[in-house]
Amino acid sequence: AQTVTQSQPEMSVQEAETVTLSCTYDTSESDYYLFWYKQPPSRQMILVIRQEAYKQQNATENRFSVNFQKAAKSFSLKISDSQLGDAAMYFCAYRALGGSEKLVFGKGTKLTVNP
Amino acid sequence: NAGVTQTPKFQVLKTGQSMTLQCAQDMNHEYMSWYRQDPGMGLRLIHYSVGAGITDQGEVPNGYNVSRSTTEDFPLRLLSAAPSQTSVYFCASRSGTGFYEQYFGPGTRLTVT
Questions:
Q1: Which residues contact B18 (CB under 8 A, 6 or more apart)?
Q2: Phi, psi angles (nearest 5°) of residue B98
Q3: CATH code where residue A11 lies
Q4: With an 8 Å Cβ cutoff, is B100 touching chain A?
Q5: Which chain A positions have a beta carbon within 8 Å of B39's beta carbon?
Q6: Most A CBs within 10 Å: which of B4, B23, B33, B37, as the mutation test of the A interface?
Q7: How many domains does chain A have?
Q8: How far is it, in rounded angstroms, from Cα A36 to Cα B97?
Q9: Which of A59, A81, B18, B22 is packed most tightly, with the most Cβ within 10 A?
Q10: DSSP bridge pairs for A46
Q11: For residue A99, what pLDDT is reported?
Q12: Looking at the predicted structure, is the pLDDT value of residue B99 above 70?
C-alpha cells in the first residue's frame, strides 16, 4: 500500500525568508501524481502545487516550488519570500495514475510564519 | 461557479442518530469523493463515485452509505452515528480528464456525543 510521510509536524519561518517542508512516499508504481495542499484555519483545502512523476522538471508556482527526487521517493516543498498568509497546515498527497481514486495524504506540517 | 458546496457546516448528533451530509458540484465532474479528517491525520477516503449510479468503497467505509443519482450530487449518509465518527468531512470532485486535480468543499464538522 502506498504511504506518505511528513516527518516535520511543525515548522516555523521568519517573514520574507525561505522554508522547505519535507515529504517522502512509498510506492511500487512508476507513474503517479504528487500534490501539496494548504489548509488554513478556514479549513478549506487549497491545491498549492502538483507534479507528474514522469516529468523530471520540478514544478513551480510563483513562490512555491518542489524538489522531486523520484529515485529517493522524495517530494519537498520550498516556499520563498514567506508571507504571513502562508501560515497553515500543509499536506503532501499521492495518487496513482489511473484506476485508483484514492488520494493518500501525509499527516501534515503546521507552518508558522513569524513577523 | 460555486465549485463544491457542502451542507451543513457544523452538526452535532447523538449516538445512534442518522443523518445525511450533502455535497454538490457545478463543474460537471465525473468523479466525487468523501474524505474524513481526524486530528493529527491527513484525509482518508470513505467512499467515491466515478459517475452517476456508480460508487465504491474507500479506505474507511464502515458506518457510511453513499449513492449518486445525478452528476451534481453525492450525499453521505451516517446510518447510526457513533462517537468514532466525530470528524471533519470533506467532499471533493474532479474531472475524468486532464490533470486530475481534486477540488474540495469547505468541510462539515460533525460531533457525535
A1: B77, B78, B79, B80, B81
A2: 85, -145
A3: 2.60.40.10
A4: yes
A5: none
A6: B37
A7: 1
A8: 20
A9: A59
A10: A38
A11: 59
A12: no
